[in-house]
């Protein structure tokens, strides 16, 4: 079940974000992600429209929209590969006619995931925080 995020969800959401970020971005030091937990808690999650996916009474994943930007989409590492990312992405696509996102070029599993779901690359940039290249991807209904 996908539902709107509630403030009481914050610790589960942050745990998923941190563990999935470290797993997906092994090319970035784990300390970088750990240093961003506070910003996620106090800035990014509150500023975004966030939805969580529950499975067996537990949050298994979430996504955040900031306007037409898919700012975050993460599934708990132990729940990946079970269609939950697709369910979250489909829900997000159903809420917007157009979505854009950035994804690290070195995160090839995620790049393939987005391509499989209709996103196309529209450029490249360097993330000023990590120095790694990102693809700018878009989806249109």
Q: Which key terms come to mind for this protein?
A:
141 residues; 7 strands; four-stranded antiparallel beta sheet; Aminopeptidase; alpha+beta
Characterize the structure shown.
The chain is an alpha+beta fold and about 140 residues long. It has a single domain (about 1-140), classed as Gcn5-related N-acetyltransferase (GNAT) (Aminopeptidase, 3-Layer(aba) Sandwich), CATH 3.40.630.30. It is about 40% helix and about 35% strand. The protein contains five helices and seven strands. The chain has helices at about 10-25, 30-35, 35-45, 85-95, 110-115, and strands at about 1-5, 50-55, 60-65, 70-75, 100-105, 120-125, 135-140. It has a four-stranded antiparallel beta sheet, sandwiched between helices. Strands 5-7-6 form a three-stranded antiparallel beta sheet, with helices on one face. The longest helix is centred in the N-terminal third of the chain and has 15 residues, at about 10-25. The relative contact order is 0.15.
Q: Which strands sit side by side, in order, in the main sheet?
A: 1-2-3-4
User: What's the total helix number?
Assistant: 5
Q: Which segments are poorly predicted (pLDDT under 50) over 5 or more consecutive residues?
A: none
CATH class: Alpha Beta
Tally of extended strands? 7
Strand content: 25-35%
Find the CATH superfamily: Gcn5-related N-acetyltransferase (GNAT)
Distance between the termini: 23 Å
Largest sheet: 4 strands, antiparallel
Tally of domains: 1
- What is the average per-residue confidence, as pLDDT, rounded to a whole number? 96
The CATH topology corresponds to Aminopeptidase
